[in-house]
What we know:
This protein is mainly β. It folds into 2 domains: 14-314, 6 Propeller (Neuraminidase); 326-390, Immunoglobulin-like (Sandwich). The chain has 1 helix and 35 strands.
Amino acid sequence: MMRLLLLMFTLGTFSTGYSQNWNELANYSGGPMDDGCSFTIDNIAYCGSGRDSLFNVSADFYAFNFATEQWSEIGALPFSMRRQYATADTYNSEGYVFGGINQEGEYLKDLWRYTPAGNTWDYLGQAPFEGRAGMQSFVIEDTLYIVGGRTATSDAVNDVWAYDFTTSTWTAKNDMPNDGIWRGFGAVYNGTGIVGLGSDSTFTKRGEVFFYDASQDSWTEMVALETEPMSYPAASVINDRLLIYGGIDTLDVIRNDFRYLDLTNLAWNSLNSFPDVARRGVMTFSSSSDFYISTGLTTTERLDETWVARDVANLEEVIAGVKLNVRVENGVLYLFDDVSDCYLYNSLGAEVPLIPMSAGVYQLPAGLPAGIYFCQAMKNGQLSSGKIHIQ
């Protein structure tokens, strides 16, 4: 356990990177708004709902084309289904919107599906749990996971529910090991759910990050990844990076920070801060290389602006330590460096036992599941890392 904690602390070192540029694009066609939701299908991001400058919630949705970087109107939810603080995800080239809060302040638990081919919305029924808003969500294989959120009876809950797209059924999963989470972030990377930050049931802002293993229905708090407490972060995964813009800190200041968690070595890296007035409650989406934010609320007004951070997937890698030259063949791990104290960890930070065969050569355990693993060793007096894809 001591060795695992030392590893995670080293991986959590905050380092600095360069250098993407921010550019302002065409305004969101739905007007000034905050706390909408978004999902992406192929080359188009679909954004909608939220609360406007007259304090009315919205049912409208608009499509943003990554090729032209222009907005166009699409079919709206039924007007009676307008909402704020919903969550949205993609599955099999269709978009899904869940929950939120309506104009009357009622917490919702309905699920809707958008089909681009027909430009239509289909009602998929009510969830068998308390309505909620500001929850986190992600999709792993054929399942949508709804995590936490605010309800009519709690400022933040920690329960987790799974919707099976193939059977259209809901199942309760293990709770997050925390005191609730509202307006944090939810993401998925190589089949692992990632949830963090946000506010808890006492409305205290949190800085923890958790990984979710769907095959085991288990949560792991990544202690070394704990960062500055923040609610309202805007997050998206591009390649091996979890990018996060802004949020509200413990002094209730809206921040303009932009950073990413390198998911290959679990290190935080800073990027160029957003150059305009800070905002929260933005809609976030990403292409294969660019990170977008649209709308949002400043300390004084709602906005309709859309901005992009270019080429964030092509930044030069910044890691804590030196990369290892490592590969796996026929169940054997080979290190092509003069190293000592070699350890292997899975994507959740658990150590995988290695059997030494000779200098720099180790036998892997039989039946090791496919996935991403991290090899750690001392090289030239530095803790060094290498990522391995086991098929």
